[in-house]
Amino acid sequence: MIGEPYWSDRPVIIVGGGPSPDGFRWQSLEDIDAHFVAINWTYRWVDFDTVFTADPDIVENPVFADEVYRATLDSREAVIAPGTPTRITGAIHCERRISGGLSDDPKVLHTTGSSGYAAINLAYLKRAKRIYLLGFNYDRFPFTKWVNGYETMLPQLEAAGIQVVNCNPDSQLPFFRKVRWECQSSILRMKSYQTL
Question: What is the Cβ-side half-sphere exposure of residue 20, based on CA atoms within 13 angstroms?
Fold first, then answer.
């Protein structure tokens, strides 16, 4: 079940597996006081707080299961919503429901097909106020078929006062404000230092 600790105290950066992070300067994430969510295999690229997947094929992979289990031993959070009976020791398990809109049930995550959609639902349930998306390209098949589903979450995000920023200006997701990561990371870094 999804619950405390909540993520309303810091921005949330969700790292997806789209091609825009190819060649990404991961050191640009250093010194940013944010909660990092790594989707699927991106935990290998980024120093994450939470690893997440809603992909049944990935959950079934024994390498993923072992590495995620070891991450939980290192006090990192793992949340999975695989839609299969597979369990990973140490992980929080949620029901995966193919549905538009965001789930308000802390035991259920909605997705219209992609782990990225469900990761935003996770951040919503964790009471995030600012969400930044990296690697949310959706510019090739099969990912293009999931683009329009994101529109179904907009009313709930707006009602909750959650701002979502896509840090890939070339992304095919038209529903969130787009900025270049280089500009946004400078702003986030400045805000981190203002709290010292």
Answer: 22
The residue type found at 51 is: V
Contact by Cβ (8 Å): 26, 45: yes
Angle at 13 between CA 145 and CA 121, to 5 degrees: 50
Do 8 and 127 meet the contact criterion of CB atoms below 8 Å apart? yes
Burial profile 117-149: b = 16 or more Cβ within 10 angstroms, e = fewer: bbbbbbbbbbbbebbbbbbbbbbeeebeebbeb
Q: Phi, psi (5° rounding) for residue 163? A: -95, 130
92 CB-side CA count, 13 A: 19
- Helices and strands in the chain: count of H runs, count of E runs: 5, 10
Q: State both tokens at 180.
A: 């270049």
Beta bridge partners of 15: 38, 134
Write out pLDDT tens, residues 95-149: 999 999 999 999 999 999 899 999 999 999 999 999 999 989 888 766 778 888 9
pLDDT tens by residue, 169-178:
888 899 999 9
Q: At 186, which amino acid appears?
A: S
Pairing of strands 35-39, 12-15: parallel
Structure tokens at 110: 């909605």
DSSP of 63-102, one letter per residue? HHHHHHHHHHHTT-EEEE--SSS---TT-EE-EEEE-SS-
